[in-house]
Amino acid sequence: MRIDHRTAVCHHVGFHVNTRKSIDEVMYVYILGGFLGSGKTTLLMKLASMYTRRGEKTALLVNESGEIGVDGATLKAEGYDAIELPNGCICCSLSGTLQSALQNIERDIDPDIIIIEPTGLALPHKVKELVRVSMIDADETFIIGVADVQRFEDLIKKKEEFFTMQMSHADFVLINKSDLAKDGQIDAITSWIKEKFPGKPIIPISAKTEENLDKVYEMMR
Ligand SMILES: Nc1nc2c(ncn2[C@@H]2O[C@H](COP(=O)(O)OP(=O)(O)OP(=O)(O)O)[C@@H](O)[C@H]2O)c(=O)[nH]1
Ligand SMILES: [Mg+2]
Predict the structure, then answer these.
(1) Which of 78, 118, 123, 168 has an alpha carbon 20 to 30 Å from 61's alpha carbon atom?
(2) How far, in Å, is the centroid of ligand 1 from the Cα of 13?
(3) Given the CA of residue 38, which atom of ligand 1 is nearest to it?
(4) pLDDT tens readout for residues 181-198
C-alpha cells in the first residue's frame, strides 16, 4: 500500500496525521476499546487535538463504520491529511491490513503517537497483539477502555462477559457521557468496575463537554 497524504483512497478505515514531528523520537500507540457508540471517535478527535497542541505528530487509524465518521473532508477541514484502507474490522478480517498499515505509517509518517479506534465489537487486547506482531518499533502500547454511562446497565444485562473482556486489558477505564449521568449513576458504575478490576484507574469523563479530559491527558504520555 502506498500512502498518499492528499487522497482518500478506499473506505471504512482511515488514518490521518498532523505535520510536525517533535524532537522526542519515542513512539506510543493507544488503542481505544469500548462498545459500539460509547464515544471512541468523539474522544479520539479530542485526543488528536490535544497532541497537535503539544506539537506531537499523530497518526489515527480509525474504523469508519461508526455513527460519527472521520471522513477525509472533516480531516482536511481540521488541517489533517487522510488516507483510508479497505473495508472491514481491523481486529479480525483486516488484521493483515492493520499490520501493513502500521508498518507504512511508521515508515512514511514516523509519528510520535498512533491512536487506533477498532470497531466497538473488537477486543482491544487482540488489537494490541496485532500491533506487537506488526514489528513496528512502538515503545509502548496502551489500551484505554471507554464505558458508556447511558448504555452501561443494558450492556451489563446483555453482554457482561464481552464488556468485561473489553475492559480487562485496559490500562485505565473512562466512564464516558458523564454529562448524561443521573444521580448516583457514576458511583454505581465506578463501584462495579472497581469490584471487577481492583486497582484499575477509572475516570468519569464527557468527551462531548470535555469534562475531566485534562485528567485523561495527564494519564497519557
Ligand atoms: N452526551 C454525550 N454524548 C456523547 C459523548 N461522547 C459521545 N457522544 C455521542 O455518542 C454517540 C456515539 O459517539 P461516537 O464517538 O461515534 O462513538 P463510537 O464509540 O466511536 O461509536 P462506534 O464507532 O459506532 O462504535 C454520538 O452521537 C456522540 O455525539 C459524551 O461525552 N456525552
Ligand atoms: Mg467510532
Answers:
(1) 168
(2) 17
(3) 19
(4) 999 999 999 999 999 999
Cβ(125)–Cβ(169) under 8 Å? Answer: yes
The confidence score (pLDDT) of residue 91 equals 60
- Closest residue CA from atom 16 of ligand 1: 68
Q: Which helix (H) or strand (E) holds 49?
A: helix 40-53
Residues with CB under 5 A from ligand 2 (ion): 40-41, 66
State the distance from the centre of ligand 1 to the C-alpha of 191, rounded, in angstroms: 23
* Residue 2: Cβ within 10 Å count: 7
Q: Nearest residue CA, atom 6 of ligand 1?
A: 39
Q: For 28, list phi and psi in degrees, rounded to 5.
A: -115, 145
How much distance in Å is there from the Cα of 192 to the middle of ligand 2?
25
pTM of the model: 0.86
In a domain, 117, yes or no: yes
Domain assignment present for residue 145? The answer is yes
Number of domains in the chain: 1
119 within a domain of the structure (yes/no): yes
Give domain status of residue 14, yes or no: no
